[in-house]
Amino acid sequence: MADTTIWIKIETKKADLRKKLDEIIHSIEGMKVQMPQDTRQDTLLIFEMGDDIDNEFQHIRSLLNSDEVAEVFLISKNSDPAVLMQAIKIGAKEFFLLPLKEEEVQQALEKFKEKWEKINRKKSPQLGKIITIFGCKGGVGATTVAVNLGVNLAQKESVKSVALIDMNMMFGEIPLFLELDPGYHWGEIVKNISRLDSTFLMNILAKHSSGVHVLPSPATLSDSRSAIPDMMSHLIGFMQKLFDFVIIDAGQFVDEISLKIMELSDNILLISLLSLPCISNANKILQSISELKTFPEERVKIVINRYLSKSDIPLDDAEESLHKKTFWTIPNDYSTTVSAINNGTPLYMAAPRAQITRSLNDLADTFVEKEENQKKWWQILTKH
Q: Mean pLDDT over residues 53-65, rounded?
């Protein structure tokens, strides 16, 4: 599956101009600014011209001819019509004069995005879906949900491949839940990120009998220390190309890496209990996401684990406090869940008829049905 992200490279010597362009680009879903060290092809280059116009035009022409960039937008303080005509001749698609008008740039980027998506619909299938499981605090059952969601998805007829990533730093327990003894973890990939290809990745992954491929977390702090958001973004983006679903157990700590993972995710399941500490923490997390504005808030879905209809805190009261409706409730069956964990067995194998097993299976169905509907629309669009 091909990466449909629109990667934009900015070349300017002005820090304030770079900041303004960065803000405009990140306000548009599906567009990202490419880091200087990133060697992938730029989808779009936004280039600020200086005083050496002839050499700069020659440089841009060579980039376009060599396919290093797909398209170029130019920014200049020079309003000479001859400069504009030369820009058109070399293939620049947009020409903006300084001082920059943000609305013009945004409209041009939206237009470019629409055209680029039409091209990609014709030549590329969709990427796999990323579902991140995030606990509002420790002990709420985030790993239980992640493991059983991944395993249940793998049993669906329409799902060909599922990956389960343990991003719970230092407290990763996914191998224990599946009675796996993996030889490697994602720290091995981070230390050798330049080697990342499908062969290297599949040799690192451990495969469970359910069909799920597992990428464990490092067992020591030294092995996870080298991880940075851009590296994890590259790893997860690569896995999207190989798997229909990538399920991430993100633990319960908010840091730069977990925020980057959320930004990349199609859905974020925020796991909570109907308890005052959990609801309070969930509220803080939702407020932080709202303030950061790095991704749409509707991606975050509240899942109440160990749900009892006669809880001390009624579900309606929790929803009112969170200003958000509950997406899913998972019934309380602590003994069945603990037994399955202690035996290293997914619930669908350990207790196929249990109510909690049916609930987690139905939760998986919501994402499969959504995916199947999207595939139907995809097939319709690609025929036209």
A: 89
Running DSSP on this structure, what letter comes out for residue 162? Answer: E
| pLDDT given at position 283 | 94
Read off the pLDDT band of 383 (50, 70, 90).
very low
For the residues 134-148, what does the mean pLDDT come to?
Answer: 94
Distance (Å) of CA 294 to CA 25, 117, 298, 327: 11, 21, 12, 22
Lowest mean pLDDT among 8-12, 231-235, 315-319, 332-336: 231-235
- The DSSP secondary-structure symbol of 125 reads P
- Domains in the chain (CATH in brackets) are 6-123 (3.40.50.2300), 129-382 (3.40.50.300)
Of 224 and 289, the structure prediction assigns the larger pLDDT to 289
Strand partners, 236: none
Q: How far apart are CA 154 and CA 213, in angstroms?
A: 10
pLDDT of residue 200: 84
φ, ψ (nearest 5 deg) of residue 218: -65, 150
State the Cα–Cα distance between residues 144 and 164, nearest whole angstrom.
12
125, two tokens: 């299938």
> Does residue 346 have a cis bond before it (omega within 30 degrees)?
no
Buried-state track 100-116, b at ≥16 Cβ within 10 A, e below 16: beeeebeebbeebbeeb
Tens of pLDDT, residue by residue over 265-293, are: 999 999 999 999 999 999 999 998 888 88
Which residues sit opposite 42 in a β-bridge? 69
Could you tell me which residues come within 8 angstroms of residue 104 by beta carbon, excluding any fewer than 6 positions away?
96
CA distances from 38 to 9, 41, 42, 302, 375 (A): 10, 9, 9, 35, 31
The C-alpha torsion from 65 through 69 and 70 to 76, rounded to 10°, is -90
What's 326's DSSP letter? E
Distance of alpha carbon 65 from alpha carbon 282, whole angstroms: 51
Nearest residue to 324 (alpha-carbon basis) of 360, 286, 275, 289: 286
CA–CA dist 246, 240 (Å, integer): 7
Q: If you ran DSSP here, which 8-state letter would residue 372 be given?
A: H
Q: Could you tell me if 273 and 304 are in contact, meaning their C-beta atoms sit under 8 angstroms apart?
A: yes
Cβ atoms within 10 Å, residue 161: 16
